[in-house]
Design goal:
The complex is a heterodimer of chains A (274) and B (357). Chain A has 274 residues and is of the alpha/beta class. In chain A, 39% of the residues lie in helices and 24% in strands. A 6-stranded mixed sheet of chain A has the order 6-9-10-3-11-12, with helices on both faces. A 4-stranded antiparallel sheet of chain A has the order 2-1-4-5, covered by helices on one side. In chain A, strands 7-8 form a two-stranded antiparallel ribbon. In chain A, α7 links the parallel β9 and β10. The N terminus and C terminus of chain A are likely disordered. Chain B is mainly alpha-helical. Chain B has one domain: ABC transporter involved in vitamin B12 uptake, BtuC (Orthogonal Bundle). In chain B, β2 and β3 form a beta hairpin. The chains are: A alpha/beta (274), B mainly alpha (357). Chains A and B meet through α3, β8 and α6 of A and α9 and α10 of B.
Chain lengths: 274, 357
């Protein structure tokens, strides 16, 4: 573990701020991920998670702050720039195209070709075969690569998207709420692939609002709140219970609990008193 | 992924979770199947009601194909564009505009034209059409307005320009005498000639149509561009996120529809040795009908060029059938509207059945 912590981060952002007009979406946020580790970004709705992913994946340029990939400072103009370096982002809803078959989805945007010049063709046989093989490597036994992605379950779609990113040589995998909207079992399936990707030496940034999903797979936890860093811990510095507390807003939750108790308790006493 | 108790009885040829599906059900999954069935039903219907008027003959068949070819050429390009998730309502106007561009090019300067050879006039019209297509595409991808609105605007602009410019320069809205232009023979052979087959004459345009169907099918099923077109129409943001140049795809597809409009304008100008500023009116809707009858989804991401081929053929069969049947031509639009509604319902029905398997 000590050797791990001295390892250079593969991706790091320092003091990132992002403003949309007068709105401060992110302020002074720093985070990093090392190869073969999982950094979890946690936060409630509106905490700035989505903005941060968009900065990390090259969709937004940060208003202030620095972005490092393998120690070099980066300025991305488009998600494609980030993708070419091996920073792959799997979006919650936008990962797959439902009407297209699995193999067409798998290679969309990076189609293998054979032949040359105007007769360059999409190597369909290779695409089908590779899709099945790569899914098998992730422990997924594909029924039929010709099946439209729309017929897969949510967890399966996420898994195909992760397998695709891994196949195309992702060094950093950014997962946007991969377990949201999934059942318990399906979420478990996806988390297993997160661990698989980590074991293959990929740095994973996992965005979630569920500490129960984050804690078992994470090495590092960054908690965002109102666009700012609220907590930054490695796994040995925090327990699951503390993480849950922080996520729920800690002190806020206690206040809320008291308020709720007071409201229900108060209602009873006033009716009794009246 | 899904763990299911294995069926011991079933022969484990491939995978126990994949059921063997019959040939018919496999065919039903293809988007164009509905259009093929509709074409056959229409043909059988007219051979019964109009059989006495020689509907079942080589001449009538040639007439159907000659009618279908120009519409089919437009439909192929519109089909690719609609799979890519956009509409082009301006192709009828581009058709009229390109036709007039060719005619003004070859018309002698004393009559208000440029007095060019047909070669130069065709090149001029081609460049104009491609620019208009690129303009449509750029406008759609930069403003992010619905292409329905943008091309509705260009529909009026280019129809208006075709009429206004032609009248201003030549004092007319119809120009003829294309056969007197230099180089007409070559273009006549390539675009206007007839092929005698089984005692009937088929327009050479049919070959252009079939060639484009083959090209479009190849692009869709066997090239990276095909994958990008499906992806762009299926979910544009997702496609862009994985690196598909969706803007370039759309602009090129709009240039494709403009090119098809130019090609039909050229074919018809050569066939009729002239053009009319109103040529191509309503063709944008006929092309969309052919494409939708062919099983392409209005919402994009799904469809086939073979479907569009049979969509155009069904349309022409209906058109020619009504004529040969001898019903008043006033009724034709009623039948077309009916065909569209029935075809969409039918396509939806077989698609759902096919998806359930």
């Amino acid at each position: 573990m000590t050797t791990e912590t001295t390892k250079e981060p593969v991706l790091e952002v320092r003091n990132i701020s992002k403003y949309f007009g007068s709105v401060i979406a992110l302020e002074d946020v720093s985070a990093f991920v090392r190869a073969g580790e999982v950094t979890c970004l946690l936060g409630d709705n509106g905490a700035g998670k989505s903005t941060l992913i968009k900065v990390l994946s090259g969709v937004h340029k940060p208003s202030e702050g620095e972005y490092f990939f393998k120690g070099d400072e980066m300025h991305f103009d488009s998600p494609r720039d980030a993708l070419e370096l091996g920073i792959a982002t799997v979006y919650q809803d936008l990962a797959m195209i439902p009407l297209m078959s699995i193999w067409r989805n798998f290679f969309l945007g990076s189609e293998p070709t054979k032949g040359a010049g105007p007769f360059k063709m999409f190597d369909v046989d290779f695409a089908k075969k590779t899709t099945s093989e790569e899914m098998a490597k992730m422990g997924i036994d594909l029924r039929d690569p010709d099946q439209p992605v729309g017929t897969l379950s949510g967890g399966e779609r996420q898994s195909v998207a992760i397998a695709r990113a891994v196949y195309f040589g992702a060094e950093v995998l950014i997962l946007d709420e991969p377990t949201a909207a999934l059942g318990v079992k399906q979420a478990g399936v996806v988390l297993r692939y997160v661990v698989q990707a980590k074991q293959r030496g990929i740095g994973v940034i996992l965005i979630t609002h569920n500490p129960h999903h984050a804690y078992p797979v994470g090495d590092h936890f960054v908690i965002l709140r109102r666009g700012q860093i609220y907590g930054d811990y490695s796994k040995d510095q925090i327990t699951l219970d503390e993480l849950v507390q922080m996520m729920a807003g800690g002190a806020d939750l206690e206040v809320l609990t008291h308020e709720l108790e007071a409201a229900t308790g108060g209602g009873e006493s006033s009716s009794a008193g009246g | 992924m899904t763990t299911k108790a294995p069926d011991a009885e079933k022969p484990k040829t491939t995978d126990e979770r994949v059921r063997e599906v019959g040939v018919i059900q496999r065919l039903l999954v293809l988007p164009g199947t509905g259009a093929i069935i509709i074409t056959v039903i229409l043909w059988i219907f007219f051979s019964i009601v109009a059989g006495g008027n020689n509907f079942v003959s080589m001449d009538a068949t040639a007439a159907i194909f000659n009618r279908a070819a120009p519409l089919g050429i437009l439909a192929i390009a519109v089909c690719l564009l609609m799979i890519g998730g956009e509409f082009d309502l301006s192709i009828g106007s581009i058709l009229g505009f390109s036709g007039m561009a060719i005619m003004i090019g070859v018309t002698p300067s004393e009559a208000g034209g440029f007095g060019w050879s047909l070669w130069l006039a065709v090149l001029f019209a081609l460049v104009l059409a491609l620019l208009i297509g690129a303009g449509n595409g750029l406008l759609v991808v930069t403003t992010k307005l619905p292409s329905f609105i943008v091309t509705l605007g260009t529909l009026f602009i280019f129809r208006g320009l075709a009429i206004a410019i032609t009248r201003q320069r030549t004092n007319r809205t119809q120009l003829g005498n294309l056969d007197e232009a230099e180089g007409f023979g070559f273009f006549d052979t390539l675009f206007g000639s007839q092929i005698e087959l089984f005692g009937a004459s088929f327009n050479v345009a049919i070959l252009w149509w079939i060639g484009l169907v083959i090209l479009a099918t190849w692009i869709l099923s066997r090239t990276a561009w095909g994958n990008w077109i499906f992806g762009t129409g299926g979910a544009e943001d997702a496609a862009r996120n994985v690196g598909v140049p969706t803007r370039r795809v759309k602009i090129l597809l709009f240039m494709g529809t403009a090119f098809a409009a130019f090609l039909v304008a050229l074919i018809q100008a050569v066939q009729f040795t002239g053009s009319d500023a109103l040529r191509g009116t309503l063709q944008e809707f006929n092309a969309i009908i052919a494409v939708v009858v062919g099983g392409t989804l209005l919402t994009g991401g799904y469809g086939s060029a073979v479907g569009a081929f049979f969509g155009a053929l069904a349309f022409a069969t209906l058109q020619q059938g009504v004529i040969i049947w001898g019903v008043d031509a006033d009724w034709f639009r009623v039948f077309v509207g009916g065909l569209l509604v029935v075809a969409v319902v039918f396509n939806n029905y077989i698609r759902q059945r096919a998806a359930r398997r």
